[in-house]
Amino acid sequence: MSIHWKGVMPATLTQFNADLTIDHALMAEHGKWLADSGCSAIIAHGSLGEGATLSFEEKVALQKTYTDALPDTPVIPGIAALSTKEAVDLAKAAKDNGCRGLMVLPPYLYASDWREMKTHMSAVISATDLPCIIYNNPVAYKTDFTPLHIKELADEHANVESVKESSTDARRVAGIREVCGDRLVLGVGVDDCALEGAAMGAKFWITGVGGAFPKHNIKLWDLATSGKIEEAMPIYTWMLPMLRMDTVVKFVQLIKLQQTLASGGTLGNNRVRPPRLELVGEELAEATAIIEKAIATAPAV
């Protein structure tokens, strides 16, 4: 079954037990809740999902948890690793596990020139016939895929179907459309650039905050992609303090706190794997106040 590149696709957190093993039961329950809320796909073990701290085996097991729990919802894992070989192996495992697409990232840590990055990306994209998202996030990965780089990959690989644009540069969506035309479906990957991306023609939103507030994200995105920008503004304005938590160093801790508070603790907890540590003290109090105010003032959707 093909993927329809549209709508809200939450990048999910990885929830841990007290011993910091993956809580697969909670992951499955939360995934079902997102699907029931109307999300169009699930993005697994990406940056928000603490993918860099998960072993190869843990990522493969998490893929299987999701595909078993969500047979009717596309599961799209983030494919990133220290080496090209491991990334290729992870892509092949994702296909074997029933994942319906791949979100292909640059390698962890090593950021170099286009020749090396293109070779890495091409190897992962070619490892399967699954449809692929090119994930451009130069802020986090120190590698910037320009619109012309993206066009090269799309020209050479038929299964490159979409782009998750996360440069934080609002001009990039227009830039990709300029050189690629309608060859690729464009998506937004920075939460507090969502409305701007939709206004420029993005069709899907890979969101962090969507794991806690999916119905509000979906309502916002439906309005934005229908050209109803002014109608979307009240929801966007309400949500912006939380959306901005997606673009800071401790985004994982902050969005885990959002999901924990929004669900009353039933669909999340604040545990993170070191070197990350849970929020404490004034930092925790300030974030909690922002999130609790948002929950208390949430618009009806």
The CATH superfamily appears as: Aldolase class I
Number of strands: 8
Task: Write down the overall mean pLDDT.
Answer: 97
CATH architecture, by name, is Alpha-Beta Barrel
Kindly identify the CATH topology.
TIM Barrel
Structural class: alpha/beta
Helical residues, percent = 40-55%
CATH class: Alpha Beta
Low-confidence sequence ranges: none
Question: For the largest beta sheet, what order do the strands appear in spatially?
Answer: 1-8-7-6-5-4-3-2
Shape, principal axes of CA atoms: globular
**Number of helix segments?**
12
Integer tally of domains = 1
Distance between the termini: 30 Å
| Radius of gyration, in angstroms, nearest whole number | 18 Å
How much strand?
Answer: 5-15%
Largest sheet: 8 strands, parallel
Give me the strand/helix succession.
EHEHEHEHEHHEHEHEHHHH
Describe the protein in words:
The protein is α/β, with parallel strands linked by helices and 301 residues long. The chain has one domain: Aldolase class I (TIM Barrel, Alpha-Beta Barrel), CATH 3.20.20.70. It is built from twelve helices and eight strands. The protein has an eight-stranded parallel beta sheet with strand order 1-8-7-6-5-4-3-2. Strand 6, helix 7 (172-180) and strand 7 (185-188) form a beta-alpha-beta unit. Helix 6 (147-156) crosses helix 7 (172-180) and helix 11 (251-262) packs across helix 12 (281-296).
